[in-house]
Design a protein that fits this description.
The complex is a heterodimer of chains A (330) and B (510). By secondary structure, chain A is mostly helical. Chain A is 73% helix and 1% strand. Chain A has a single domain (49-261, 274-290, 300-316), classed as ABC transporter involved in vitamin B12 uptake, BtuC. Chain A has helices spanning 13-21, 24-42, 49-74, 82-98, 104-129, 133-152, 166-169, 177-195, 197-207, 209-214, 219-245, 256-266, 278-297, 302-328; strands at 171-172, 175-176. Chain A is globular and about 65 Å long. Chain B is an alpha/beta fold. In chain B, 34% of the residues lie in helices and 27% in strands. The longest helix of chain B has 18 residues, at 433-450. The chains are: A mainly alpha (330), B alpha/beta (510). Chains A and B meet through helix 9 and helix 10 of A and strand 2, helix 10, helix 11 and strand 20 of B.
């Protein structure tokens, strides 16, 4: 090598800090911090332990589904059917318990299995038949929701026993039960994505599926797994949803896919695949939830809230693009 | 030099971590073909991008027709009459030939008081431009996406001329062309030269330089080495200027002990391009697979590698019949495949050297499921040393490497998997002469010292003849010839590659 090259050396703490701050996640974190501080000055009801824990309860469902959605979007795919799978799970749970007389434990398991199978079917068609993920999950978005409506016949199931509400309404050591679940899932799946062979394969597929295949990676198996995983997590979110609101209705989770995708993309995952992380996604989930809540508390109408959230999304992406470009230029 | 149309002097250009050009100079006279050569990473691309206004030099001056100019963007360079034809063509596949040619400056007319595109004038203009280049077999209404590479390139040239280009920069124009397209390109280049257009011609192929160019400038590691009049120089001189040393042997083939049969293919069948193929490759043996483009060489390789699984037939690895239905299975049986399309199939370009070299051996660099960065880095550093990959380190993104170094990364990925059979599909296409010799030396050493069985596909007959112990020839999906190293000649192989009709035609004309 005759041209001058920079010698690799260990980065100093200061450089590491700088690197972290100008990373996608770092920028987003600062935006979140700024939003929290701003909202806190507008109302004293926002920055309280009770309120924040309550918000943790609300963000668990979106957060749990956002984990597999991050995996899927990293591979360059998308899953629009998550909300319908959530609804289908809820209905299967309520219906098998109330109409078929299953024990509640078995009804929960049946519900979660149905959701997982729904995800598996998505994956199977995407991998085997080669249906583009957008088309396949757009179709099952309608199909699974229709199934849920057909099964429920517009009736809602209610009257669950007390223990059933532990997951959705209970607490453990002063923290909402489902928030524990979210925290544990985030840690496990963040590590899985960042450090394991599975994660590496997902990034490789997202950057260049052909290249990954030609390197001997089992592309199809990985894709099948993540869509099934998405079905499973949507099903778990469905169970939490029912437990939180104490009733089962067939329209549960309608539109949640948009909240999930917004959070993932806000978190720095490229919609074209190849880049993204779970920490980024979680900051995205938290940011959107805190904005929603904080703006309502400061008396902003819900229409205006949506406008603000949309603006923050665009702003965050612009700032990120700007910083990434600066960084690429050195 | 007062007769220079374009002149660059003292050009410096830095990129983060890399000095791309240092005190480089270059000039083009009116109506000459000036070849620019050098190894990958020598600074050719940077230099032409400075001329094209894509980059701005840190230092130095550019003179056009004697006057000093500065191009702060490609548009300014365009309007000064400089057009570039890049390796990746900048055409719109969904638009027609005429629309592509006149993109951005379509003839306008007034209709019902509105300015609209004058489609008829555009088509006539496009036809005239193509006729000017002696191209008469191209429909200006055809979609560019439906054309072959050679025709697309002609459209690109016509587009440049529609902008009254005085200087035409051609970056590796023949890299993806077939023989007959190359011939046609050469005649277009000569035609343009006669009309006074100056052409800057970048190529890896020295024979093209001798066939086409008036003068040749050599760059090495970002520095200007020299300019020669083509009639006064020789291939050997240019090579030593390019690599800074004399390469004694372009095809260093060591004699190898031929061992047991590693791969045996029996009646492999997957029409249309793999029909009833049977052959074997032994340990330590390099088997060359020759044939025209489209004869089914890559497809047959991909049948063995499981990308296009066989419909019938049998594959035996080390004497054992195996079933290969996907690449991951081929890898398990010890097969590696260095594909033809490096950027798309061979590499994940957005990822680092470290991540690419470990891609086929993730299990061995992992503790349970967790990838060990330390093991990966050790693997990548080993590859960088062993194959002398020029990079800033294992964490460099492979996108930023030159073609030859990218290819070395692909090879290192498969060497890491310790294969018993390595299939190399056009292993040195688009690679400069220095890196090419290195890859040949490596292949030869792997076969001779490690007993690796190598199946090499190549369109370059000298490469096939020099590197192979045995040569197979394919035509229209069938194996039509087999020659030993001793008996094979260029004529025999070329003859076997040609179709019956072509042979009859050749026979009739003699």
């Amino acid at each position: 090598m005759q041209s001058e090259t920079t010698k690799p050396r260990n980065p100093t703490v200061r450089e590491k800090l700088r690197h972290l701050l100008i990373s996608q996640e770092g920028v987003l974190f600062l935006i979140m911090l700024a939003s929290v501080l701003f909202l806190a000055t507008r109302t004293d009801k926002f920055l309280t332990v009770d309120n924040l824990l309550q918000q943790g309860r609300f963000m668990a469902e979106v957060g749990l589904i956002a984990i597999p959605m991050t995996y899927i979007i990293i591979t360059g795919g998308i899953d629009l059917s998550v909300g319908s799978i959530l609804g289908l799970t809820a209905i299967v749970l309520g219906w098998t318990w109330q109409e078929l007389g299953f024990p509640l434990e078995l009804a929960i398991i049946t519900g979660i299995i149905s959701g997982t199978v729904a995800g598996f079917v998505n994956g199977l068609f995407i991998v085997r038949v080669g249906v583009p993920p957008l088309i396949m999950t757009l179709a099952t978005l309608a199909l699974y929701r229709g199934l849920a409506e057909g099964i429920s016949e517009a009736r809602s199931a209610r009257g669950y026993p007390e223990w059933f509400f532990q997951l959705g309404q209970g607490e453990l050591l002063g923290i909402p039960t489902q928030l524990w679940l979210l925290i544990i899932a985030v840690i496990i799946f963040a590590i899985l994505l960042a450090r394991t062979r599975l994660g590496r394969a997902l990034y490789a597929i997202g950057n260049n599926e052909t290249g990954a295949r030609f390197s001997g990676l089992t592309v199809n198996r990985h894709l099948l797994f993540i869509y099934t995983f998405s079905g499973f997590m949507s099903a778990v979110a469905g169970y939490i949803f029912v437990s939180r609101v104490s009733t089962t209705r067939s329209d549960m989770g309608t539109g949640i896919e948009l909240d999930v995708i917004a959070a993932v993309v806000l978190g720095g995952t490229s919609i074209f695949g190849g880049t993204g992380s779970i920490p980024g996604t979680i900051i995205g989930v938290v940011l959107i939830q805190l904005l929603k809540n904080g703006l309502v508390l400061t008396g902003v109408t819900s229409d205006a809230t949506i406008v603000v959230i949309g603006s923050v999304l665009i702003f965050a992406i612009l700032v990120n693009n700007f910083i990434q470009r600066k960084r690429d230029e050195g | 030099m007062t007769d220079a149309l374009l002149e660059l002097r003292g050009i410096d250009k830095h990129f983060p971590g890399v000095r791309a050009l240092k005190d480089a100079q270059f000039d083009v006279r009116r109506g000459e073909v000036h070849a620019l050569i050098g190894e990958n990473g020598a600074g050719k691309s940077t230099l032409i991008k400075i001329i094209a206004g894509v980059y701005q030099p840190d230092k130095g001056e550019i003179r056009l027709d004697g006057g000093r100019v500065e191009f702060s963007n490609p548009r300014e360079s365009h309007s000064a009459g400089i057009a570039t034809i890049y390796q990746e063509l900048g055409l719109y596949p969904e638009l027609s030939v005429a629309e592509n040619i006149f993109m951005g400056h379509a003839p306008k007319t007034k209709r019902l008081g509105f300015q609209t595109i004058d489609w008829e004038a555009m088509e006539r203009g496009a036809e005239a431009l193509l006729a000017d280049l002696n191209i008469d077999n191209l429909d200006v209404g055809a979609k560019v996406g439906a054309l072959n590479v050679g025709n697309r390139q002609r459209v690109e040239i016509a587009k440049a001329l529609s902008l009254d280009a005085q200087i035409l920069i051609m970056d590796e124009p023949t890299a993806a062309l077939t023989e007959s397209d190359v011939e046609q390109l050469f005649s277009i280049v000569r035609l343009l030269r006669e009309r006074g257009v100056s052409i800057i011609y970048i190529s890896h192929r020295l024979n093209e330089v001798f066939e086409l160019a008036d003068r040749v400038t050599v760059l090495r590691d970002g520095e200007y080495i020299g300019t020669q009049a083509v009639p006064e120089t020789s291939e050997a001189e240019l090579i030593s200027m390019m690599v800074g040393r004399t390469i004694e042997n372009l095809f260093p083939k060591q004699a190898a002990a031929i061992g047991d049969v590693v791969l045996e293919a029996r009646n492999l069948h997957r029409p249309p391009l793999t029909r009833d193929i049977s052959f074997s490759v032994r340990a330590g043996e390099i088997v060359g697979l020759a044939g025209l483009v489209g004869s089914g060489r890559s497809e047959t390789a991909q049948v063995i590698f499981g990308v296009l699984p066989a419909e019938s037939g049998e594959i035996r690895i080390n004497g054992e019949a195996v079933k290969i239905t996907r690449p991951s299975e081929a890898v398990e049986y010890g097969i590696g495949y260095v594909p033809e399309d490096r950027g798309h199939q061979g590499l994940i370009r957005e990822m680092t050297i470290r991540e690419n070299t470990s891609m086929a051996v993730l299990e061995t660099v992992s503790n349970r499921s967790f990838i060990s960065r330390a093991k990966e880095r050790a693997l990548a550093n080993g590859a960088i040393r062993q194959l002398s990959i020029r990079a800033t380190g294992p964490d460099q993104v492979t996108n930023k490497l030159s073609g030859g170094n990218q290819q070395k990364v692909v090879v290192s990925k498969w060497l890491a998997s310790k294969p018993s059979l390595l299939i190399m599909d056009e292993p040195t296409r688009g690679i400069d002469v220095g890196a090419k010799a290195e890859i040949h030396r490596l292949m030869s050493r792997l076969a001779a010292e490690d007993g690796l069985a190598i199946l090499m596909i190549s369109s370059e007959l000298p490469e096939i003849l020099a590197m192979s112990d045995r040569i197979l020839v394919m035509r229209e999906g069938r194996l039509v010839g087999e020659f030993t190293r001793e008996e094979a000649t260029q004529e025999m192989i070329a003859h076997a590659m040609m179709s019956e009709e072509a042979r009859q035609a050749a026979g009739a004309s003699q």
